[in-house]
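FIELD: query
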Amino acid sequence: MTTVPAPHAYRHQVLRTLAFGALPRFTALQREKNTLLSAAGLTPYAIWAPAFGGLHHLVLEASFPSMAAFEVEHVASKAVEGLAALNAAQLECVVPGTAEDRLQRLGLPA
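FIELD: result
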């Protein structure tokens, strides 16, 4: 018997701590990135930004049906014109040493 995985079995999270006051710029840049990703047929990322004190802990999140699907989109995103420049601009908003990414499997087959 073969078990079919959940439609979105993997979650990619991009975790960043932003310098105070950088949240509006970072999120505006992410909206631009999401527009480019969507136009290229790729998955845009949701923005979660709870504020704590003088820093902003931010999470970008997207779900994928498989690790292979994530890999295909990751490679394809490298060819999207303008995306690398937006990534670089976002990194200017990030507190050095705080960038972290996670790729999580959301469930195991029954």
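FIELD: remark
The mean pLDDT is 89.
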